[in-house]
Design brief:
The chain is mainly alpha-helical and 79 residues long. Helix content is 71%, strand content 0%. It has 4 helices and no strands. Helix 2 packs across helix 4. The longest helix has 21 residues.
Length: 79
């Protein structure tokens, strides 16, 4: 069973790690993960030449975010 307050700690840690990303990566993650934007919308908003280019850059952003989370001890599937 998860400790009381654990989801709030995980959320705060996630927000800290997102804040540490480059502006480009941060924008991609916010548009897709928080705003639910389509790949077409993300490509237009970020100046990417195509939805595929936006998707590939988003993948790189997610890898960087994952690396930051792992450095802080947060593994996939929970703390």
């Amino acid at each position: 069973m998860a400790a009381e307050g654990e989801p709030e700690i995980c959320k705060a840690l996630l927000e800290q790690c997102v804040a540490e990303l480059s502006e480009e990566y941060k924008e991609l993650i916010i548009l897709r993960e928080y705003a639910g934007a389509s790949w077409d919308e993300i490509a237009r908003e970020t100046g990417r030449p195509s939805p595929d280019a936006a998707r590939m850059m988003h993948g790189k952003a997610m890898l960087e975010l994952s690396k930051l989370l792992k450095e802080r001890g947060l593994q996939e599937g929970g703390a």
